[in-house]
Amino acid sequence: MLTITGARTILLDQDTETTGDVVVVDGRVAEPPASPVGAEVLDAEGGIVTPGLINAHHHLLQTAFRTLPGSRGVPMREWLGVMASAYGAAGVDPELTGVAASAGLAEALLSGVTTVADHHLTWPAGCDDVGMATAVAQSARDLGARLVFVRGSARDDPQTAADSASRIVESLLPGTTTGVSEDGLLQLAVGPAGVHSDARETFELFAQVASQYGLQRRTQANEQVDVEVALSQYGRRPLDLLAEWGWLEPGVTIAHLCDVTPSEIARLAASGVTATHAPGCDVPMGWGVAPVQALLEAGLAVGLGTSGGGSNDAGHLLADARLAMQVSALVGPALPARTVLSMAMSGSAAGLGRPELGHLRPGAAGDLCVWDVSGVADAGVADPVAGLLWANPGRRPRHVVVGGKVVVRDYQLVRADEHGLVSALGRRLQGMLQ
């Protein structure tokens, strides 16, 4: 049992705040007893307790490839070439995927993210695919983070990609019918990069794998190059193709959606898909701004993601939530802080098919953060919950709990040495990108 006590306020969900204690028993939020006996006590004095944040769209491998020359503010076609050259020079293998994931997941935990969806798209010919997926999963286990590992594809042979996805599922979650481990710490999914890189056969074969094992499906659509390629190669827009290929239906999440028309938004809402906003990638690269308010008003669940280090050199979801508020008025009504915070919690959880995540009501997974709001950065803040996003975009949580276990205590990782993880990645990359 774990008791979090002394908080200024507890955000149960977007609309509900309370005071008192948060009690976690057997990894789940419980009704707090008057005097918990035998519980570990976590001090939240002067702070705010929120559900753990959920990064619904990341590329953890790209943690090893930040600020690469030629990768900033360029058209997506050029960016893809730069990244491909970097991957080739470094040699993507289980060791690299493991150390990159460890650094990226540590960064996530230290910014209040308790669940990361890793859309892994880089699978060199003849690679140890199960070894790479296992390395990422083990990194998450070691740190205590929840992981959603997405066996992606970017121009892979369709049958090879589908067979690989099946091998990964059968190795990491043998016998699964839900794609989620018994303890909920590991989830598997499948997802082509988009219609700009993958053919209809890839989408259809991945859908078959998803149906066989009960997996969620994820893809990317309606960024700059996606629309261009769809129009030039097929004479149609990406969502037309996704509908025809069986990927506009419940259980599918689509990231980015920067260039969507009102009729396409209505179509998305009617289809039962969910969306993921990634402004920290799309805005600095000049790839567009998703009309989030319009998506929400149409009835879509919208999550929040950072995307990867190749396009967003930080993996700080709270900072990207602030950016989402700042740019929202460019494409519609300005988004309130609590709406965006909800996107990073329940909105992301909806896209993963995980109703136990993203809130702190009784029965929820015991994933939470304690944020100190007593410092100078929060001085004069009238609404401390909104201030989480507005007042200090680079803040670290004081404590982070995943499944009732403390994984960040007093701003430091509990299960690993932060600087050791950085050094391990540096050693692996030394000389390879020069």
List the helices and strands and how they pair.
Layout: E1 2-5, E2 9-13, E3 16-18, E4 22-25, E5 28-30, E6 40-43, E7 47-51, E8 53-58, H1 76-90, H2 94-109, E9 113-120, H3 129-143, E10 146-153, H4 158-172, E11 186-192, H5 200-213, E12 216-221, H6 224-234, H7 238-244, E13 252-256, H8 262-271, E14 274-277, H9 279-282, H10 292-297, E15 302-304, H11 317-328, H12 337-352, E16 368-372, H13 384-390, E17 399-402, E18 405-409, E19 412-413, H14 418-429
Parallel strand pairs: 1-6, 2-7, 8-9, 9-10, 10-11, 11-12, 12-13, 13-14, 14-15
Antiparallel strand pairs: 1-4, 2-3, 4-5, 7-16, 16-17, 17-18, 18-19
Helix pairs in contact: 2-3, 2-14, 3-4, 4-5, 11-12
Features:
single chain, 434 residues, alpha/beta, Urease, subunit C, domain 1, TIM Barrel, 2 domains, 8-stranded parallel beta sheet, 7-stranded mixed beta sheet, 14 helices
In short:
The chain is an alpha/beta fold and 434 residues long.
Estimated radius of gyration: 21 Å
Overall number of domains: 2
**Which class do the helix and strand fractions yield?**
alpha/beta
Number of helices: 14
CATH class categorisation of the largest domain: Alpha Beta
**Low-pLDDT segments, ≥5 res:** none
**Which outline best applies?**
globular
Report the portion of residues in β strands: 15-25%
Q: Would you tell me the overall average pLDDT? A: 95
Spatial strand order of the main sheet: 8-9-10-11-12-13-14-15
N-C termini distance: 50 Å
Q: Largest sheet, described in full?
A: 8 strands, parallel
At the fold tier of CATH, the topology name of the largest domain is TIM Barrel
Range of helix content: 25-40%
Find the CATH superfamily of the largest domain. Metal-dependent hydrolases
Number of E-type strands: 19
Name the CATH architecture of the largest domain. Answer: Alpha-Beta Barrel
